[in-house]
Specification:
single chain, alpha/beta, Metallo-beta-lactamase, Chain A, seven-stranded mixed β-sheet, three-stranded parallel β-sheet, globular
């Protein structure tokens, strides 16, 4: 799973008292791109339920363990890395590359008192390129502004690209990113524009109350196919 926030109130499976985690019984790995609440999401609860190992940067992982309770034994040298790093998981069936993103990565500190910072260090924001043996190569951008080196990521022959949208905390159409990010795909595969609806979440009383307009709701991502 990548950035699993299933309890996002705009998720139909989380409405009317339904528990979107109830049906989840097996998760091997959880990949976290950065420390914001709508990306750390339900990862700790899922990890405790399934034993999933954490793949993210070292600093974020250690603070997730200390402040949020992610199990220490479900992370380690085999899963933690930094931008430019590569790990092989799932008995050699999957390779994960951590690639750059232009964003921020502060993680909310639930243990902060009135004199302590409310935001803990979350390392550097990132994206992932996931290469499945005899299967597709997937690029997940995380939250990011557009940057020209996306073209270099595209040289890895991306089959599917999951790219964020929303012009307040990430890139929007105004910076030309939506038009130019096709270069990250090198003319092949498909791209889905994605992000949770932060504006709806804020209206329903979650943390992160800054309005974030223009994000598709889960199940309603704009999709472009070659």
């Amino acid at each position: 799973m990548i950035d699993p926030w299933l309890k996002n109130p705009t998720n139909p499976s989380a409405k009317n008292g339904k528990d979107p985690l109830a049906a989840i019984t097996k998760v091997d790995y959880i990949l976290i791109t950065h420390g914001h609440f709508d990306h750390v999401g339900d990862s700790v609860e899922i990890a405790k339920k399934t034993g999933a190992r954490l793949i993210t940067n070292y600093e974020l992982a250690r603070n997730m363990a200390k402040l949020l309770g992610y199990p220490n034994e479900q992370m380690g040298f085999d899963t933690l890395m930094n931008i430019g790093g590569e790990i092989i998981i799932a008995d050699g069936e999957v390779t994960v590359d951590m690639v750059p993103a232009i964003h921020s990565s502060g993680m909310g500190n639930p243990l902060a008192d009135e004199k302590e910072p409310e935001v803990a260090y979350g390392g550097n924001p990132a994206g992932f390129v996931i290469k499945i043996k005899n299967g597709p190569t997937i690029y997940h951008s995380g939250d990011t502004a557009y940057f020209n080196d996306m073209a270099l990521i595209g040289e890895q022959k991306i089959d599917v690209a999951l790219i964020n949208i929303g012009g307040h905390f990430r890139h929007g159409a105004g910076d030309g990113g939506t038009r130019r990010q096709g270069s990250a795909r090198q003319g092949r595969g498909s791209a889905a524009l994605r992000h949770v609806s932060g504006a709806d979440a804020g209206r329903q009383g979650l943390r992160g109350k800054t309005p974030q307009a223009g994000h598709p709701r889960p199940g309603h991502a704009a999709r472009h196919q070659n």
